[in-house]
Amino acid sequence: MKSSFKYPILLILIFLIFIGNIVYWQSQNKAYFDYDSLRHYLITRHVFDEYKEGLAGFFSRVEQHLDRHPLGLYLFTSFFYFIIPPTQANTAIMSNFVFLLFLLFSVYQLGRLIKDEMTGFLACVMLLLYPIISNQAKIYMLDLPLTAMVALNIYLLIKTEYLRNKKYVVLFIVSYLAGMLVKPNFMCFTIGPLLYVTLISIKKSKVDIRFLSIAGLTFLYAVITTVFFTKNRLMGSSKHLLDFLKGSFVIVTWTPDNLRYAPFFINKIRGMLWYVWGFINWQGSLLFFIFFIRGLCSYLKSDNRYKKIVIAWILSSYMILAWFLYAIDFDMEVTGARYSMPLLTGLAILTSYGLTSIKKNALRRISIALVLIAGLLQNLFLSYPLLKKPLELKINFKQDKYHILPSYINIFSTRPLIISGSSWLSQPQDKSMLYKEIEDVFFYIDKFYKDKKIRVLLLSDNADWWHLKYLSHENRKDMEFICDYPRSIMTMLNKDQLSRFIEQMDFIIDIKNSFSEPYVSRLQRLLKKLFAANKDKFELIRESGHYRIFKNRRLGFPSVFLQLYYNCIA
């Protein structure tokens, strides 16, 4: 087998095994999507419904279903529904299959440019072994497609040869717009190397200034129109933009109370350390991180012609994340881990560079084997209940005054990760009784008022109950379940507005188990307090060990027989 074909063929085989494992996992999985993955999935279903309504006025109809993200990925995914049934498993598999191909192609090519084919191949395999990549490949989220588009864009940027190759400049612009259509965070990972390449190109005058000006203006116009057209709710909200900028210079993120009054730079240092901890604890492992440091040192000493672009990419992305997006309190393993996923491509490439740069053959082979075996075992233990009791080994740290450092490092853990939207088989996933109870609640409420929109507020952020949203769409009912209310009502600034919001609800479900994030808990307490103040406007119509259902008195009563029937089965 020729050297030029050996690694691509091996990589295709490994990729097919990876996808086969995901397909098998999905066939065994008993849990539904929740949190962001459920919201994204339901938007694709809404977009598909709008396709069937016709293209006239399509974009204006779709706009009502968008919340915070552009339309691009939803449009792309919903096309598959013309070929395959729009199930949750099919959605995750088909979308991630395509973007994983983009990701592996880009990483392999970047490895070849930086060193050789072996480096690109090993980087791809390591990337598939990162726990968070395996995690996100099982669900439908925006972060894996975002990671793929960032890697592709960086590869095309390097191939422009400092903006001199016009063909690759055009491809770069197209890929940039495609990345922006996936998620606006795309800009955080690409603006640093783009600015560096542009400034160097102008400084050395090795580029056609007229072409660069036209391309630059086209690029700027396209980015602006893309963002505004696809996400006018986000960009049209001056408050959101001001809050984002304000959050860069004051402490407004999900920090513990004792950190709210800590010195400003203490918080910034904490943000930077937390993102480093993500590379060790939730995205990879301590072993992977040690080999990355070794690879980084080797690469910095090298004379690779693309070194400054690669370092600008990794360093600028990390600094932007740590400074602007450090919502890293108790949910670092939820949001922080996936927010910095696009950085993992750079980490995998430099780790691979370090491993393939080891001069002694025996030591190089042992190191590569150690990383691959450890990564494979970790992913198996995280995906499947192979052990009755999870293995976990920790190094504990004494917390400092401001909790700057995380409390421990997982050296090797089979404890399942909790990353937004995921469901692991190694957790107890036989929730048939709970889902049966949720379905019972759904049909109980639906029987009250036929062919009339019903608005229901859940006084909890428990992800399992988000299944009510799925049932509403699946049964074609005009029922709005407000589950992610911290985002839904974040624009309501005072108690009067929140009180009016509660009064407008047709039903309120008070769920006893709730979410644990500090800012959600505070909002929950406030909402429950306001609901208690308005309780005379509602009546308790059903109660179980897990929930209570209240109905707005202005809606009247259901039939006597219906009330008696549901009281009996309750």
What does this 3D model show about the protein?
The chain has 570 residues and is α/β, with parallel strands linked by helices. It has 26 helices and 7 strands. It has helices at residues 3-28, 35-53, 58-63, 72-79, 88-114, 117-129, 131-136, 143-159, 166-182, 186-204, 209-230, 232-235, 238-246, 257-260, 264-281, 286-301, 307-324, 332-339, 343-356, 361-383, 432-446, 467-474, 485-488, 495-503, 518-533, 560-569; strands at residues 392-396, 408-413, 454-458, 479-482, 507-511, 538-543, 547-552. It has a 5-stranded mixed β-sheet, with helices on one face. It has a two-stranded antiparallel sheet with strand order 1-2. It is globular, with a radius of gyration of 25 Å. It starts with a helix and ends with a helix.
Key features of this structure:
570 residues; alpha/beta; two-stranded antiparallel ribbon; 26 helices; 6% strand; disordered C terminus
The number of helical elements comes to 26
Strand content: 5-15%
As residue ranges, the low-confidence spans are: 232-238, 419-424, 559-570
Query: Please, what is the oligomeric state?
Result: single chain
Roughly how many Å apart are the termini?
Answer: 68 Å
Instruction: Provide the residue-averaged pLDDT.
Output: 79
Strand tally? 7
- Summing up helix and strand content along with how strands pair, one would put the structural category as alpha/beta
Rg, Cα atoms, Å: 25 Å
How does the major sheet shape up? 5 strands, mixed
Strand order of the largest sheet: 4-3-5-7-6
State the helical fraction.
55-70%
Shape: globular
